[in-house]
Target: N-acetyltransferase
Amino acid sequence: MEFLTEHKGREAEIIDLFTLAFTVSEGEEEGELIGKLVRNLLDGTAEKDLFVFTADEDGTVIGGIIFSRLTYEQDERILFILAPVAVAPHQQRKGIGQRLLTHGLAALRRAGVDIVITYGDPSYYAKVGFVPISEADAQAPMPLSRPEGWLGQSLTHRAMAPLKGPSRCVEALNNPVFW
Ligand SMILES: CC(C)(COP(=O)(O)OP(=O)(O)OC[C@H]1O[C@@H](n2cnc3c(N)ncnc32)[C@H](O)[C@@H]1OP(=O)(O)O)[C@@H](O)C(=O)NCCC(=O)NCCS
Model:
């Protein structure tokens, strides 16, 4: 297995992986929704606002994670939000997701990112260093339907919270359906 950062020219394969993983775990409607989200993230986000990492085996994408910029207008630190994450159904529970996340987080740290936020299953993301954060300490771009899933981690020695001011996500995520 190898980790790749370049997604140009491989968009269709990456979108298909996310669509399949979410269709199998959450149903067809969710699969389609996340597939469209990934398309919009890849096609509609400025390069400086996006990190895409894939796990590949024998030339096939078997895992993917996407980070996009999250801006707190009154905070000078550099933040990205991790969403979504997927591993091909027949490759799950072999540690690929965790290895890919560890790889991606290390790459963002090297790139000078201060904080990574995510929104998902606290017990899954705790395995790679995420801890719960309150909306008082880090306002979400939109009202959260599952505040217990609002998670973050500092990639520096500095404490994560509090983050100042309202936050803004990239256009692809700017839809209440994802929050
Ligand atoms: C969630 C997902 C990315 C995990 O990938 P993975 O490669 O299977 O994960 P790992 O093998 O690294 O799992 C690490 C740990 O997470 C837990 N875990 C993994 N998949 C899980 C699942 N579907 N439900 C609950 N816990 C899970 C396990 O406890 C596992 O530890 P273990 O090996 O001690 O059991 C993958 O199941 C997936 O693509 N699911 C569908 C899409 C999705 O839900 N994405 C996450 C929301 S954005």
